[in-house]
Specification:
Strand order of the largest sheet of chain B: 3-4-2-12
Oligomer: heterodimer
Strand order of the largest sheet of chain A: 2-3-1-4
Number of strands of chain A: 4
Largest interface: A-B, 74 and 79 residues
Largest sheet of chain B: 4 strands, antiparallel
Radius of gyration of chain B: 34 Å
Radius of gyration of chain A: 24 Å
Largest sheet of chain A: 4 strands, antiparallel
Distance between the termini of chain B: 31 Å
Number of helices of chain A: 9
Mean pLDDT of chain B: 84
Structural class of chain A: alpha+beta
Mean pLDDT of chain A: 87
Order of helices and strands of chain A: HHEHEEHEHHHHH
Low-confidence stretches of chain A: none
Low-confidence stretches of chain B: 485-489
Helix content of chain A: 55-70%
Strand content of chain B: 15-25%
Chain lengths: ~300, ~500
């Protein structure tokens, strides 16, 4: 089975497509910074701003009774010692009223315990064995954010350094362009997800960006290696050799992406909810990464 | 061929070793998989960085307190330069731990300044009325219908605030009550002068119920020198109207007079009791804090995660489903595309899984949810190398080379780009491990270990298994290595 991607013919389209994606991402990031309530390029989650998140299931005999979140909140406020803290409370129910999730600003352990006791009184009994509670102080949140940004910058620097040493200047530049293209698009998609679905990013999102960076460069390295190898034993023209190399490594690149996507899909479908957005970010990164390795990076190498 | 057989035995040996390790050293599960609480404690220092020995000193005090609390199988470790992580497995409420650990527990003994008797009396009376208000508030909370009651408490509180010439800053009534109580206790402390006796002079602490009522008291046992100091101090104020105050973290918790009969020798025997109307719980908490000594630097609990046991076991099950289905579908994909080669990669993958888990139990790596996702993700990366090699083998076969030659050169030519390609992933893992939080470290560790092991399994193990297969004549037909319909050119 031979593949025949017409890279030379479609160079303009590929670069145009990527430009549109990048512009859309930038637009999302800017819109999120200037027009939404959180005023950040991306909707920062509890890991970074601090707060209290509680998920707990109700013990119901058969079906869980209906309740109105607003009246539960009203009740919670009345029973709370600290009225102000509960001004910013959000309550949701899932799984046919069984699973309750609550978000509030940062509470002390004592206050959070009181909240759960009150909740138990209102819509209990609750199944404490199913509890998932996280309390993060605002100080720690800030620290985590700096930590994540530093990790990202340091490893991007390390990867850039590695590529510059490993390849000629031109190759290194385009491999890095492809890398930033991938990261920017995944970041942009999550900006949009934040704007439209209020999806938040936590420290695992930073981890996924880092992993995408490593993976995307890996893919590009393999294809560029092939190009270099074929250019040494040059039979055809420069552009044709690049196109040939891409087609030769097309199977390998798509296959490895598929085998990496399969386990990620398994996590999305079967894994714990806390890994859902993480796996989604990784999957998107791998899809965008394969696209940029196969089509974008080599197209940039083509001569007019 | 001899050398390859050596490899085969080596791989079988490693597999046996892994199984043995896994049976004898079970995997350590993180709290998100077994249920439990995790508290992150941050050391607070106003100026400068927390020094190594300061961190260790805080660590040792916290460790003592945790042990005295009787929390089973708890785990305390330092994180970075100024944080500690305490893990409490199972259904243990982190509330008690947080109350006991968060206090500095600096114990002081002070003697009263002369001529402050009336000031002290007033403050003590105010403290008593606040205490009553707090009790009334607790009662009012249980009967929430009576708003009037709360108003009366508020009015009384306002009166006290006026007397004290202090206005509280808390937002709610309960917070105000607690704040005023603290303020009064601190004001009382100001009426006393420091002595040379402190919590450092204790060798033990205990508690018992008072005989006259249901309150508890805390017993202090001094060291030899501490006992002497205590005798001296009590001697100096015996029979006067000066009181001895016991002060915890700047708040006076008990003031007592020393009787005239101690004027010649002071109170000897090296022990004392604090009877400050403790409940059983409070007495126990103070006992634990005093036993552990005071913290050299204050700490703050900045993060608490609690996961129920049921949720933990659900998480294990979900991760197992994800891992196994991922493995099966990757296997199907590989066998469909590469036939025997695909089967070889599935065998290497299984070896890969065993080796990985064995390494986890050996190091040991505590498995957490992000850790498992790193492991599952590395399944995909482990076959990555196999695909690279198999594609080369296919090309060689298409070019009309013999099977043995194709396999040899496939492995040889793919070697360098495989190692190269994984370096960037390893770089990311390394940075994540160095700079990441506890949570992130698990992912970086499993992914990093996975990538390293995959180099061994996909290069060496695959080659050995493939060589072993090709010793059988029946397994050497080319069409077993290439989908037949493509094998035309």
């Amino acid at each position: 089975m031979k593949y025949n991607l017409e890279l030379i013919k479609n160079k303009g389209k590929i670069i145009g497509f990527s430009t549109v994606l990048i512009l859309l991402s930038l637009f999302g990031i800017l819109y999120s910074t200037f027009n939404t309530s959180y005023k950040k390029p991306i909707n920062l989650g509890m890991d970074f701003v601090g707060g209290n998140e509680l998920r707990i299931e109700r013990l119901c005999k058969e079906e869980c009774s209906n309740f109105s979140p607003d009246s539960v909140l009203e009740n919670l406020r009345e029973n709370s010692k600290n009225k102000n803290l509960l001004n910013n409370i959000k309550l949701q129910s899932q799984n046919n009223n069984k699973l309750i999730s609550i978000r509030t600003p940062y509470l002390s352990i004592e206050e959070s315990n009181n909240l759960i006791t009150n909740l138990d009184n209102i819509i209990g009994p609750l199944n404490y064995e199913s509890k998932d509670s996280r309390l993060i102080g605002p100080k720690l949140g800030k620290r985590l954010l700096t930590n994540c940004v530093t990790s990202l910058l340091v490893s991007l620097f390390a990867i850039s350094l590695y590529i510059t040493i490993r390849f000629d200047k031109k190759y290194a530049l385009f491999a890095l362009l492809a890398l930033f293209h991938d990261l920017l698009i995944v970041f942009g998609i999550f900006s949009w997800l934040g704007i439209i679905l209020s999806v938040e990013v936590n420290s695992l999102f930073a981890v996924s960006l880092l992993t995408i960076a490593g993976y995307s460069v890996n893919d590009t390295v393999v294809i560029f290696d092939r190009i270099r190898e074929n250019l040494k034993s040059k039979k055809e023209g420069y552009n044709e050799t690049i196109q040939l190399s891409v087609n030769e490594s097309f199977r390998r690149t798509t296959f490895t992406s598929i085998t990496t996507l399969i386990p990620l899909l398994s996590i999305i479908l079967f894994g714990s909810y806390s890994l859902f957005w993480f796996s989604l970010a990784l999957s998107l990164g791998i899809i965008v990464g394969s696209y940029s390795s196969i089509l974008l990076a080599p197209s940039l190498l083509l001569k007019d | 061929m001899k050398r390859r057989q050596g490899w085969l035995f080596f791989i079988i040996f490693l597999l046996t070793l892994s199984v043995y390790l896994l049976i004898n050293y079970p995997l350590q599960l993180g709290l998100d998989l077994q249920g439990g609480s995790q508290l992150t404690l941050q050391i607070i220092k106003e100026e400068g960085k927390v020094a190594r020995d300061e961190l260790e000193a805080v660590n040792s005090v916290i460790d003592k307190r945790v042990n005295n609390l009787g929390v089973s199988e708890s785990n305390l470790q330092t994180l970075g330069v100024d944080q500690l992580i305490l893990e409490l497995p199972g259904e243990q409420n982190p509330l008690v731990a947080s109350r006991v650990l968060g206090k500095t527990a600096l114990l002081e003994f002070r003697t009263q300044k002369e001529g402050t008797s009336t000031d002290l009396k007033t403050l003590q009376i105010q403290r008593l009325s606040i205490k009553e208000l707090i009790e009334q508030y607790a009662f009012a909370e249980k009967n929430p219908n009576d708003d009037n009651f709360l108003n009366i408490i508020q009015d009384n509180l306002n009166d006290i605030e006026q007397d004290l010439n202090y206005s509280s800053t808390s937002n709610d009534l309960y917070g105000k009550l607690i704040e005023i109580k603290k303020y009064v206790n601190k004001e009382i402390t100001n009426l006393f002068i420091k002595t040379n006796l402190s919590g450092k002079d204790l060798i033990n602490a205990g508690r018992r119920q008072e005989q006259t009522n249901s309150n508890w008291e805390v017993l202090l046992t001094f060291s030899n020198s501490g006992g002497e100091k205590f005798a001296e101090i009590t001697k100096s104020i015996a029979g006067t109207n000066q009181l001895l105050a016991i002060i915890l973290d700047g708040e006076s918790i008990s003031e007592a007079s020393v009787g005239n009969q101690f004027a010649s020798t002071g109170i000897t025997g090296g022990s004392a009791t604090i009877s400050g109307n403790f409940s059983a719980e409070n007495a126990r908490e103070l006992e634990v804090q005093l036993k552990g000594g005071s913290l050299p630097l204050p700490i703050e609990i900045v993060e608490t995660n609690t996961i129920g046991a049921l949720l933990g076991s659900k998480n294990i099950l979900k991760s197992l489903y994800a891992a196994i289905s991922g493995l099966i579908f990757v296997g199907i994909f590989m066998i469909f595309n590469y036939r025997i080669l695909g089967f070889v990669s599935v065998l290497s993958l299984i070896l890969y899984g065993f080796f990985n888990l064995a390494i986890y139990s050996l190091i040991p790596v505590t498995l957490t949810l992000p850790g498992i996702s790193g492991l599952i993700l590395s399944i995909g990366m482990a076959v990555d190398a196999n695909i690279l090699i198999f594609e080369r083998i296919r090309e060689e076969l298409y070019d009309g080379n013999t099977l043995t030659r194709s396999i040899d050169s496939g492995f040889q030519r793919a070697n360098s780009s495989i190692v190269d390609g994984h370096i960037t992933t390893l770089l990311s893992c390394f940075v994540l491990f160095l700079l990441g939080t506890n949570f992130v470290k698990g992912f970086a560790a499993t992914l990093g270990i996975g990538v390293l092991i995959s180099l061994f399994t996909s290069l060496n193990c695959s080659k050995t298994i493939l060589r072993f297969f090709t010793t059988y004549q029946s397994l050497r037909q080319k069409n077993l290595y290439l989908p037949r319909n493509n094998f035309s050119n």
